[in-house]
From TrEMBL, chain A:
This is Methyl-CpG-binding domain-containing protein 5. The lineage of its organism: Eukaryota, Viridiplantae, Streptophyta, Embryophyta, Tracheophyta. Keywords: DNA-binding, Nucleus, Transcription, Transcription regulation. Its main location: nucleus. It comes from the Eukaryota. It is found in: Nucleus. The keyword Secreted does not apply. Residues 78-149 form the MBD domain.
UniProtKB/TrEMBL annotation, chain B:
This is Increased DNA methylation 3. It comes from the Eukaryota. The gene is LOC110795408. InterPro entries: HSP20-like_chaperone (IPR008978), IDM2/3-like (IPR039321). The lineage of its organism: Eukaryota, Viridiplantae, Streptophyta, Embryophyta, Tracheophyta. It comes from Spinacia oleracea. Transmembrane segments: none annotated.
Length: 232, 146
């Protein structure tokens, strides 16, 4: 591990959180080996993708860029020896895992296990690096090299829900109208105005957004289909 | 001789083009009001009211009264060289200082549903939604008759 210090020294602060992992989520680094303790690269341990031990996940229809050999394998299926890639050293095992939760649920991951230590690797690149140098490949290097299956499968399958632009109009009472509202120009660059009900009382930001939403609803052509449903 | 005649005749200002379409009067406070099916639009001329020093506020009342308040900034060139004194020969612009403008929209409004814009050309534009009696569903588009 000494040579890591020269080449692969990485400040832990540089690591970005795994996009596949929810904050606080953790994964048993070696769920199939019970009671076996072994050293795991802290980096790998910190950011493996979500894995479920459920065996029920069916074939997935996600956009994995790498073809998966087995089409109906269980969530964590050991691959038969005759299906192993030819680069894999003898004795090593490979397994497929289907992610059961998280934004990338349904994605498949390959894991390669070294016999004896049960040390787990997530890509051919990691395995080859380990075989050549005897050291673990840091995740940062994988990212830099690009093209590793780990990172290809990191593409989220569905877009994150867009930030809520439309505020619900349900709470906006069209009949409960204040006697007067004073609008004060607050930001000349943004052109934003702050409303003060009855001339003095500050309007909460949430209420102001409702007002804006109601105004937008009334002004935008067709009223906005999504907003209309708020009245139904 | 030419200068003297200017002094004696204080309105040598000639308007052409759309400037003639306006009316003579105080430079600040010319108001246009437009009506649509669901909203009122007003435009107020605020020349000399700088965006960054205007302290502009616009109070909208439920019955349609609108009160504008703000401050007119003085001229800059005169301030740059305060030793030179210019005697006012003709004064049509509003002098520096606070002002207020009040006018009445044609009908009741919802003062919450107001979208003001103070344009960089010194025109304050605002759209206020008309007040609808309770139970009347909101109209979808202020610009098209529903």
């Amino acid at each position: 591990m000494e040579e890591l210090n020269s080449v692969n020294v990485i400040d832990l602060d540089d690591f970005q959180p795994d996009p596949l992992l929810k904050p606080g989520a953790f994964i048993d680094p070696n769920p199939t080996v019970i009671g076996t303790s072994f050293t795991v690269d802290p980096v790998v341990m910190a950011s493996p993708p979500p894995i479920s031990d459920k065996k029920s996940a069916g074939p997935s229809s996600n956009g994995n860029s790498k073809p998966v050999k087995s089409t109906a394998s269980p969530a964590a299926a050991a691959v038969d020896a005759d299906q192993l890639p030819d680069w894999m050293p003898p004795g090593w095992t490979m397994e497929h895992r289907v992610r059961a939760s998280g934004a990338s649920a349904g994605s498949r991951d390959k894991y390669y296990r070294e016999p004896g230590t049960s040390r787990k690797f997530r890509s051919k690149k990691e395995v080859m690096h380990y075989l050549e140098t005897g050291t673990l490949l840091k995740r940062k290097n994988i990212d830099d090299a690009g093209g590793s299956p780990v990172n290809e499968s990191a593409t989220p399958k569905r877009k994150k829900s867009e930030p809520k632009v439309k505020v619900s109009l349900k709470n906006f009472n069209f009949d409960d109208i204040p006697a007067k509202v004073k609008w004060v120009l607050t930001d000349i660059y943004e052109g934003s105005w702050r409303p003060l009900t009855n001339g003095v009382d500050r309007v909460p930001e949430s209420a102001k957004q409702e007002w804006t939403a109601a105004y937008t609803y009334l002004t935008i052509q067709n009223g906005g289909k999504a907003a209309i449903t708020a009245f139904v | 001789m030419g200068e003297k005649s200017t002094l004696e005749n204080p309105t040598p200002v000639v308007l052409t083009g759309t400037a003639r379409e306006g009316t003579a009067g105080p430079a600040i406070g010319h108001v246009d009001i437009g009506i649509s099916d669901s909203a009122y639009l007003f435009r107020v001329a605020l020349p000399g009211v700088r965006k960054d020093q205007c302290e502009l506020s616009c109070e909208i009342e439920h019955d349609g009264k609108v009160h504008l308040q703000g401050v007119v900034t003085g001229g800059e060139l005169a301030q740059k060289n305060p030793k030179t004194v210019y005697h006012t020969n003709l004064a049509q612009l509003s002098p520096p200082g606070p002002f207020s403008i009040s006018f009445q929209l044609p009908g009741p409004v919802d003062p919450r549903l107001f979208s003001p814009t103070f344009r960089s050309d010194g025109i304050l534009e605002g759209v206020v939604m008309k007040y609808r009696a309770p139970g009347v569903p909101p109209c979808g588009n202020q610009f098209d008759p529903a």
